[in-house]
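Rather than argue in generalities, we have chosen a single entry, letters for residues, whole numbers for local backbone shapes, without further comment.
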Amino acid sequence: MSSKLVPSDPAKVMVIRDVVPRVITTLSVPFWRFGKIKVGGRGTIVRLQTGALAVLSPVALTDDVKNKVNELGEVKYIAALDAEHHIFLGPWHAAYPSAQVLGPETLPEKRAKQGNESVPFAFVFQKDKPITSISPEFDAEFDWEYVPSHLNKELVFHHKPSKSLITADLMFNLPATEQFSRAGVDAESGIFTKLFGAFQSTKGDAVWQKRAIWYGTSRGDREAFNASVARMNKWGFERIIPCHGDVIEGNGKGVFEKVFAWHLSAAKKAN
């Protein structure tokens, strides 16, 4: 993996944080989009009440991460939250081969074409074949929405007990302060980062991120995207854990409704 994208020694710069002790643990690392834009990366470990672990958008499996996993429980689910967040699926499945792998349509074919490690997908989310159950323990704690109208085929999970919305590229919350906090560089430095960050911020009225999602992310099938956003907005989350940028605590629902205001309004008018 090119050091221009991800750190060559992730153990030195990863931030392992218990967002909710014994329930939600985040693994935050530096990540450079196109090798230039500091967007950060984040994996999330959710400990179910049964002790099973769900690993969403896995990042590098360092020794410290393995120790944390051993402390928490047994990895039973590994999910790529979209067609881009999959580069560490192979190492995680190799370490925990009994875990079920989840991902969106197009990803198995993409990985095969790229020559990635062979990983058996237990669940592939498809537009025309909705998945309504993963397992009793998983179903009891998660809501999910597959958003095939998203450019990257997004999977969004809501962990109900912790009221946490866990996303990949659905929305950003730049700058990636936590993710670059051990990297020895300013998360906001660089002209490309500043420009991209302006389009992917939730500050103020977030108008530039609204525009980026409306005219970019959702342009393929905006009506279906609107419907997905409306369904997610019915969930009772208070926290948003994005892959790119800082975790949003307490007012997550308000930030979500601000960023997706145009989509929510369009969905309401359609109904």
The longest helix spans residues 222-233. The domain at 10-270 is CATH 3.60.15.10 (Metallo-beta-lactamase; Chain A). The radius of gyration is 17 Å.
